[in-house]
Amino acid sequence: MTLQQVFIAVVGGSRFELSDFDPLMHPLVDDADVHLQKAYDWHFERTMTAIRLVFGAAGAVVLALVTAVLKQGSDPTGGQIAALIASAGLFAGIGLLLSVRLRNLHREYVATLSYLERQRWMRQVLWNLGFG
């Protein structure tokens, strides 16, 4: 597994391709928008879970490093402070990236729903003309 594949897996992977929804465009499928909404709801919940996990991990790293420094009883070294900032920053950065992707999800949902409706209308026209 390449680093890019690992990053995509951690950050939530690719969302949807329009071809994923081709079966929903058939004129005899009545509840295509319900299936579409379920797919986007599932993606939203999965991304929110990842965001909570990443921000929780950032907090846990900060807490663990602060606890270790306080337990040691001495002033924190520069390396400890750098490790604290770097690790918490890494987790927080991933969380922010996921948040930005999640912000765009609604826009993608509306665009996909619009595309789906246009395609279903065209297929219905072709179906009625005998080309389906």
In words, what does this structure look like?
It is a single chain. The chain is mostly helical. 76% of the residues lie in helices and 0% in strands. It contains four helices and no strands. It has helices at 3-11, 32-72, 78-103, 105-128. α2 packs antiparallel against α3 and α2 runs antiparallel to α4. The chain is rod-shaped and about 80 Å long. The chain starts with a helix and ends with a helix. Residues 1-13 have low confidence and may be disordered.
State the secondary-structure class: mainly alpha
Number of separate helices = 4
Count the E strands: 0
Gross morphology is rod-shaped
Distance between the termini: 42 Å
| Largest beta-sheet details | none
**Average pLDDT value?**
76
* Global Rg: 23 Å
* Topology order in helix (H) and strand (E) letters: HHHH
Low-pLDDT residue spans? 1-13
| Beta-strand fraction estimate | under 5%
The proportion of residues forming helix, as a percent range, comes to over 70%
Q: Which key terms come to mind for this protein?
A:
mainly alpha, 132 residues, disordered N terminus
Provide the fold topology.
Elements: H1 3-11, H2 32-72, H3 78-103, H4 105-128
